[in-house]
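[agent] plan:
  1. take the single chain provided in the ticket
  2. run structure prediction with default settings
  3. attach structure tokens to the ticket
  4. add a short note for the reviewer (M.T.)
[agent] executing step 1
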Amino acid sequence: MQIIHILALTLILGVTLTVAPFAKPVQAQPWRPVRGSILFGISGMAFLEQQEGSTSFLIVHDNKGVGEGRLAMITVIGEQAPEYSPINWSNQPLPVDLEALTAVPGQSEPTFMALTSSGTVYHFRLNGNLQNVSVLNVFNLPNLPEGTNLEGFALQQLDDKLLAVWTHRGKDEEPGVLYWGVLDLETNEITPQGSARLTVPFPESNVRHISDLKVDSAGIVYITSASDNGNDGPFQSAVYVAGGFSLQDNRIVFHQNQALVPIYHLNYHKVEAIELVPGTAGGIILGTDDENMGSSVWGFDGMF
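[agent] step 2 finished; step 3 output follows
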């Protein structure tokens, strides 16, 4: 993760750095299947906890029907297949088409926000038994243009401001759009601060330019991109550093990476979820929505 972060800063700031070559290439672990069938695709992911030998995440599914799952926990232990534990939504009306999930930073009790493709945000916490949730608030993202189809939502603390970032996925010649603003947790209001259009060089066809994103504590923005060739694929995906956020004159500014180069090319899978895990054992983890082929996860940089 440290090498990736150095390269990210290099790309954004336009600095030329000489990085010592690896003694051998950094290898990712094989994809680990989570569940089969179209009802178990992973469309968003948030880190829960890491203990010796195991790592747990919340995931959301983009299901729309009554009786279909919306939320689950997966736990990766050693070399075992991920353990999948469904989590019941509360008695609120079920959300439709959840596409992103993020932890809320700086909370004494962990809470999370999940976003639908149409722009509705659900702020919730897990109950003590980890079998259901309590919805704390529901609100809508501001000023969404007609035809917006959202696939990414992330929160990050930048000094005294809670940065909120959300993304329209785009398709082929239509750019993806990254929006950002400042979220007030007391009022659930977001003050928009800007937007940026973005297209990726890979995948090359049927591409969703932004299928998910996360922002690290330094403001660096990681995005995933994916091709969608229907429920049976084939699929391709990539991971990029899209740029970085900083505070300038008490306003959040986005420094866009003008030369997008994939950190990873990924064949055969449609990545729709990315998470950044902190700490020395942390790294990047990806989740897939492979439609009829179900879902898988993949961890980088010694994640598991």
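[agent] step 4 note for reviewer: The chain has a mean pLDDT of 88.
[agent] ticket updated
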